[in-house]
Amino acid sequence: MMIRSRRTAINALGRFKREEEDFISEVDRARLIEEIGGYWSCAHSFWVFTHEHPDGDALGCNLATYAVLKALGKDVKVFSYDPIPRMYRFLPHVGSIVHTHTLPSRLPDVIQVNDNAAFERLGAEFAEQLTERGIGPQATKRDAVCKVLNLDHHIGNDSYGDINLIDPSCGACGELLFHAFSQLKLPITHDVAVNLYAAIMTDTGRFSYSNTDADTFYITTDLIRAGADPFDVANRVYNTRTIGQMRLFAKVMETIAIEPSLGYFFCTCTQEMLNETQTLMSDTEGITDLMKTVSDYPISFFFKEEGPNNYKVSARSNGSFDVRKLARRFGGGGHPAASGFRLHMPHAEACRALAAEMRRYRDELAAQQEIIEEWE
Questions:
Q1: pTM for this model (two decimals)
Q2: Which of 213, 237, 261 is the last residue of a domain?
């Protein structure tokens, strides 16, 4: 197994700092992989989940898991709470994904959740149905048979599984699955390679984010050797937008608003825009990447209207500012440079709430910095 250098975590000031306690040891990771491998080997039926509004890492991991478990002769069902974004519909086995809000009545032997930090992020109805059947942290009486495997790379994962393999040193959950498959000597077939390559490529921002390191390239080199075509995967993910999507991007960019005193800007996508351009909210994939290219303001927020007075906010940082800590103040989470949260209020009120919280957070960081300078 490859030994990786530990990535940078985040300290209380929202700036990058090495914090080894946030990471799992190589020994513990290997032990947990062996335990998970025992379930993959012995159990018969599996349900595979990820977070709502699935991205490339989530889908790639779930489809790679599907391919590996099917090759082992297992009964596997992959569920998605939301539609599959257009840019990921080429992925091998994508047709196996069941888009639904209603789960089958009979639980499987094993539920595996990839790339999902909090149980409720499975989707409200999924979480509610599973809880009623004795699955999850809020279940009053736990199901004695069905086991939950939680595989993730997010700092602050809620550890809601029976086995929790959480490794924030991995740049993508796809890296973690690669380590698991490799350690257990499970074949990395062409289909598995394509899905894991797409997972890692998208979650590292085409290998440009700070979560990219030498291990990322070692892994993707092995995936290329196993059959993943870098040009084909990148071309299918990033170069297949429709005219409707381009018009949607233009409308969103017209909403740019700046908070110069707080160092951020934001954009908004409304349901009206989707109707006018005949697109879906999943067609906004890529807007946050475009926003990150603005050098004047290293922090950006993208408001997505999911319903009346209901906004999903994507937060991005190009610098040392930890948007994950800000997102957690609103009940959200994610990564230091890419996080999300929800605001249930009218748009104008949501913008004011964000500005007020940013102002409080900035003042707290400034006060803590003054304390540190006094200590030094």
A1: 0.89
A2: 237
